[in-house]
Amino acid sequence: MTARYPLLYRSVQGLGLLLALFSFLAPGLLAQMQFWAALGLIVLIGIPHGATDYLIFQHLARPLWGNGSMLQFYACYLAIMGGYALAWYLLPQLSLLFFLFISMYHFGQSNWNYADLGAGWKNRAAHFIWGAFVLSAPILWHYEAAVPIITHITGEAPPAMAATWRRAVVAALFIINLWASLYYFLEGAISWRDLRNEVFNLIVLAIVLTQLPLLLGFAVYFVGWHSLSSMMDQIRFFRDEDRQYGWRHYFRNALPLTAVAITGLAALAWLQNEMALAMNIGLVFVFISVVTLPHMLLIDQLYKAHDSP
Ligand SMILES: CC1=C(/C=C/C(C)=C/C=C/C(C)=C/C=O)C(C)(C)CCC1
């Protein structure tokens, strides 16, 4: 992925390494402010990257279904959200597992979409193992910090795991991804330059995700690597129809739904406060996952329609 947006990736890699160094020199400071930093990054960039789904759908569906299809889109989006919210209510543990699996796939897809890794299961497995690394690394490495969050989300504590095992899983996923990149190079799916970039990127991600505190490390990956490059992919996609389309247009288009999502989150926080409940980070997580599920399904369609958007 790095080769496609070199300036973006070099900048986020540099920033990530600087933050890791800072965290090494002053460990307490970043841990103290990580919640607000993560929240700020997610509100300013993470949420907007999913707030143009309605436009993506318009672009994908209009040629097939005509102009009347937007109503169907919103109905479908809301039905998926409603169904998934119900699933959370009935089966919280399974719903979390499902979200983790589909998120892994989504993250891997946005990393590998530039390469033609073949059709079918091979392609899907490649996406999945890449995402498995970026999601398992922060959660398993910082398990002591992740356990209370997961307990809030599902209402039950996740199984205890010895630190050696957790770290071994993260190391194994790291090595599997190194091998996978080498394999794609040998298969001719990526160039020598891509291979070098992928290996370097994996090393930087391993440092960022294990050396920064849990929420900050994940937010830096989610915003710096995933959201910004996804926005750039989307801008390229919209440029197919409008050659002038740029960042300004993107943020303007993303504003209405970003505002709806932030209002929803703020209402949730306010309601919990009004009802004198302790701020429940689990509920906030469920809300985010419910709005994210249809986004991930749609982006899958976008990448399928435009293998190289
Ligand atoms: C469970 C868990 C986490 C998982 C977050 C996930 C799975 C986020 C997925 C976001 C997606 C897919 C956004 C798409 O645009 C955190 C926050 C690391 C903290 C520890 C507990």
UniProtKB/TrEMBL annotation:
Membrane-crossing segments per the record: 7-29, 35-56, 77-105, 125-143, 164-186, 202-228, 249-271, 277-299
UniProt subcellular location: Cell membrane
Organism whose genome encodes this protein: Phaeodactylibacter luteus
Topology of this chain in the membrane: Multi-pass membrane protein
Keywords: Cell membrane, Dioxygenase, Iron, Membrane, Metal-binding, Oxidoreductase, Transmembrane, Transmembrane helix
Catalysed reaction equations from the record: all-trans-beta-carotene + O2 = 2 all-trans-retinal
Function per UniProt: Catalyzes the cleavage of beta-carotene at its central double bond (15,15') to yield two molecules of all-trans-retinal.
EC id: 1.13.11.63
Stated family: Belongs to the Brp/Blh beta-carotene diooxygenase family.
Keyword Membrane listed: yes
Cofactor: Fe(2+)
Any one GO CC term of the record: plasma membrane
Gene Ontology terms: biological process: carotene catabolic process
Recorded GO MF terms: beta-carotene 15,15'-dioxygenase activity; carotenoid dioxygenase activity; iron ion binding
Source organism superkingdom: Bacteria
Pfam families noted in UniProt: BCD (PF15461)
NCBIfam families per the UniProt record, alphabetical: blh_monoox
Name of the featured protein: Probable beta-carotene 15,15'-dioxygenase
Enzyme class: oxidoreductase
